């Protein structure tokens, strides 16, 4: 009987996820060897576990092994086992992962990292269903379903002479490809809700994202895929248990660089829009006067910038005398650009990268604020 709870643990309502769940239900009950492909963090082991749970082998063991995490000279012993005295340190007989997975499923993750000599031995196992423990004179029959996975392009590895073509066809009987998160962004809200419940506080209260933060999540490219999203929700659940999360109020070091860049770009666009309101954009001379003349003086100091930011975040009461919003926004942008230029030792290209701006855009702002000496 198909274990639907295992299949349904693959979260999402997108076409890609719906098709993947349907394939698992179809392929799972068979004994066919499966090759799962997809970027790192897409959930290949979760799919392999679901395939196992949907099969007649579900009562047997599901044994995962990461072929890229085990040193090359130890992987053969790890997979096939060894006899006592087979090599230095082999103090007793040891069963390999194939024996441990007998009557169950062996999940070979990152199969693309397996050495060529070990690929030959794996091919023999798949063809003859026997293994040869290291140091043994006798072969052992095994009954194991193999599910392999990789984030690499196996066909490209074959062209480079780094992967055996005959092994590829043995593994790729049933191919399953997992779409990266950037290709199924409609699943992000459901995944956020799922991981928030998974990491809820002791009172059972889960965090939630406000509308702007959810939009930032939807716009982000998610290079680390579902794993990155899960880790991020775990982070915010620990920092803000049971609360609404607003990414605009979170320290930059706790936000992925891609989302941070969008926040910075949004702030820059807001500054530009403010500075071009009905009174028109201030000239370079007027901007210089802000720092030097009577009522327009802003002191352009780090303390002033911090005070205005604190005010924007609700950290201070709004002053009775009000604030000159346009002037403060301009001063903040100028101060941040100046700090970036100092950090980059006057290198405009490096400063542009620090600010997530185009170099030409930064040059325009440098000229506008009269920061040419800093550049």
Please provide a written account of the structure.
This protein is of the alpha/beta class and 375 residues long. Helix content is 47%, strand content 9%. The protein contains 17 helices and 9 strands. The chain has a 5-stranded parallel β-sheet with strand order 2-3-6-1-7. Helix 9 (188-198) crosses helix 11, helix 12 (257-275) crosses helix 15 and helix 16 crosses helix 17 (359-368). It is elongated, with a radius of gyration of 29 Å.
Furnish the topology, listing elements before pairings:
Blueprint: H1 4-7, H2 15-27, E1 34-37, H3 44-53, E2 62-66, H4 72-80, H5 97-100, E3 105-109, H6 116-128, E4 130-131, E5 140-141, E6 145-150, H7 154-159, H8 165-171, E7 174-177, H9 188-198, E8 208-209, H10 211-219, H11 225-239, E9 244-245, H12 257-275, H13 284-292, H14 302-312, H15 325-343, H16 348-355, H17 359-368
Parallel strand pairs: 1-6, 1-7, 2-3, 3-6, 8-9
Antiparallel strand pairs: 4-5
Helix pairs in contact: 9-11, 12-15, 15-16, 16-17
Short description, anyone?
By secondary structure, this protein is an alpha/beta fold. It is built from 17 helices and nine strands.
- Helical segment count: 17
Distance between the termini: 69 Å
**What does the radius of gyration come to?**
29 Å
Just name the CATH architecture of the largest domain.
3-Layer(aba) Sandwich
Structural class of the secondary structure composition?
alpha/beta
Percent helix range:
40-55%
Global outline: elongated
